[in-house]
Write a structure and sequence with these properties.
This protein is an alpha+beta fold and 108 residues long. Helices cover 36% and strands 34% of the residues. It is built from three helices and four strands. It has a four-stranded mixed β-sheet. The longest helix has 17 residues. It is elongated.
Length: 108
C-alpha cells in the first residue's frame, strides 16, 4: 500500500467514526413563535436521529442556540457517544461564535 493509499484509507476510517448533527432554529419576526430541529446522520448519510419542537416565543439567536443545545443533549445520551466523533453544523455565525466565546454578546 502506498503512502497515499494509506492516507486515504485512514480518512475513510475517520469518516466512519464521525456523525454529524445538522440543526436549525427560527422564529417568526424579531421575537415570535419559534421552533428548533435537527437531524443526526452518519458517514453514509443514514439518518440516526431527528427532532423538531416548538419552543414558545423567542428570537432567532435563542432558537438556534437551543437547537444546538438539544442536539448535544441528545448525542450525549445516545449509544454513539463513546464510539463516534461528533460534529454540529449550524447556519448561525452569531451562535457559533458565542458557543466558542460566551463572553461575547449573543447577536451583538
Amino acid at each position: 500500500m502506498s503512502s497515499e493509499e494509506g492516507r486515504l484509507f485512514e480518512e475513510q476510517l475517520e469518516k466512519k467514526r464521525q456523525v454529524k448533527f445538522n440543526v436549525d432554529g427560527s422564529s417568526r419576526g424579531k421575537l415570535g413563535p419559534a421552533g428548533i430541529g435537527g437531524i443526526l446522520i452518519d458517514h453514509m448519510r443514514q439518518v440516526l436521529i431527528r427532532f423538531s419542537k416548538a419552543i414558545g416565543i423567542e428570537d432567532s439567536n435563542a432558537a438556534e442556540y437551543l437547537a444546538i443545545r438539544k442536539a448535544l443533549l441528545i448525542f450525549i445520551s445516545s449509544p454513539w457517544v463513546h464510539i463516534r466523533k461528533f460534529c454540529v453544523e449550524s447556519d448561525s455565525m452569531n451562535v457559533v461564535n458565542w458557543v466558542f466565546d460566551p463572553s461575547k454578546v449573543l447577536g451583538g
